[in-house]
């Protein structure tokens, strides 16, 4: 039938076929004459899941005391970090996450009795760590705070690990969805609104600095139900700046369901819009209770997208990748969203979803425009509460200095409810925004 013909048509395309193995084309990289490459742009040893349990592993010693060190190789911290850079002893407690290039574990600071999370990644001394560099710049209420960074040695003298200490946030959007699914319940609408709004706000902060996160997924959206379901974006291991010459496309595996179609079409000049597509996929998953585009590989991923959104037009294909001319596919009409989701879905949620899941990257709604969408009007009602009865996060509408500078007055009036505009500003958020760099919009 037509689905099989579509699958064959996609597979015949050489650009998409390269993505079948779960990875996009990756160029071979040589060190430029002007300086070192970023650590994210070369092959590194895999830190597998069993490693924390191996006797003698620096992470495996639980509890393990690790003395914070000042490291000459790293650039000096920002003034905000320098203020809070004491000598600390960290007792590792348990592994809370692991991936291809790193391990995350919770730890206890002996001197302050504080619980933190520490991300440990392998370091190649020839390369600069891009994640640390970008993360230090990104200070925002909806981005997990980087507190300190220090190095530890591995099993051999040549092994060096960078440990990035961040605030500990107890849950992820993925865990929240799993919990409701286990109870055969849908994620409450107010949580879908809260999580999507805060994700858009975090992306607005990144994108104004031309930073692409490149790995938006439920596992990278941390939430704290005890603080009004405040959301914090984490994991800058795949992040890069747009506008740099031909950024390397990261081989996503777990993140395949959230991959923008221009990446599947082999684009290498993509921009911040890939994060907006991923946000739409997360929004749909929270509403639906399961991934919207569950492809098994690169080819299958595009097939799943086309089966829902219809066959992209020639103009949309060129918008995704100007070098792509050989997509010969049977024509599919877009499905009605009523056939994708259960009955009773807020039509405003569907409108926002449609604005995010556009084939043309430039047609996707921008993050702050998304925050002003009518789908979030419930959040702007001062009587709205979380499912547990708690108030919403205190800083939900408290714009940072950077947000205020880059947000037109007309948009600001739609974003900030009148009752909040009359309330005094939070000094903490004002301080967070004061270190922002000058903006550049997409």
From TrEMBL:
<keyword id="KW-0547">Nucleotide-binding</keyword>
<dbReference type="GO" id="GO:0005634">
    <property type="term" value="C:nucleus"/>
</dbReference>
<keyword id="KW-0808">Transferase</keyword>
<dbReference type="InterPro" id="IPR017441">
    <property type="entry name" value="Protein_kinase_ATP_BS"/>
</dbReference>
<dbReference type="InterPro" id="IPR050591">
    <property type="entry name" value="GSK-3"/>
</dbReference>
<keyword id="KW-0723">Serine/threonine-protein kinase</keyword>
<dbReference type="GO" id="GO:0004674">
    <property type="term" value="F:protein serine/threonine kinase activity"/>
</dbReference>
<feature type="region of interest" description="Disordered">
    <location>
        <begin position="31"/>
        <end position="87"/>
    </location>
</feature>
<feature type="domain" description="Protein kinase">
    <location>
        <begin position="90"/>
        <end position="376"/>
    </location>
</feature>
<dbReference type="GO" id="GO:0005737">
    <property type="term" value="C:cytoplasm"/>
</dbReference>
<protein>
    <recommendedName>
        <fullName>Protein kinase domain-containing protein</fullName>
    </recommendedName>
</protein>
<keyword id="KW-0418">Kinase</keyword>
<keyword id="KW-0067">ATP-binding</keyword>
<feature type="compositionally biased region" description="Polar residues">
    <location>
        <begin position="59"/>
        <end position="70"/>
    </location>
</feature>
<dbReference type="GO" id="GO:0007165">
    <property type="term" value="P:signal transduction"/>
</dbReference>
<dbReference type="GO" id="GO:0030154">
    <property type="term" value="P:cell differentiation"/>
</dbReference>
<dbReference type="InterPro" id="IPR000719">
    <property type="entry name" value="Prot_kinase_dom"/>
</dbReference>
<dbReference type="InterPro" id="IPR039192">
    <property type="entry name" value="STKc_GSK3"/>
</dbReference>
<dbReference type="GO" id="GO:0005524">
    <property type="term" value="F:ATP binding"/>
</dbReference>
<dbReference type="InterPro" id="IPR008271">
    <property type="entry name" value="Ser/Thr_kinase_AS"/>
</dbReference>
<dbReference type="InterPro" id="IPR011009">
    <property type="entry name" value="Kinase-like_dom_sf"/>
</dbReference>
<dbReference type="Pfam" id="PF00069">
    <property type="entry name" value="Pkinase"/>
</dbReference>
<feature type="binding site">
    <location>
        <position position="120"/>
    </location>
    <ligand>
        <name>ATP</name>
    </ligand>
</feature>
<comment type="similarity">
    <text>Belongs to the protein kinase superfamily. CMGC Ser/Thr protein kinase family. GSK-3 subfamily.</text>
</comment>
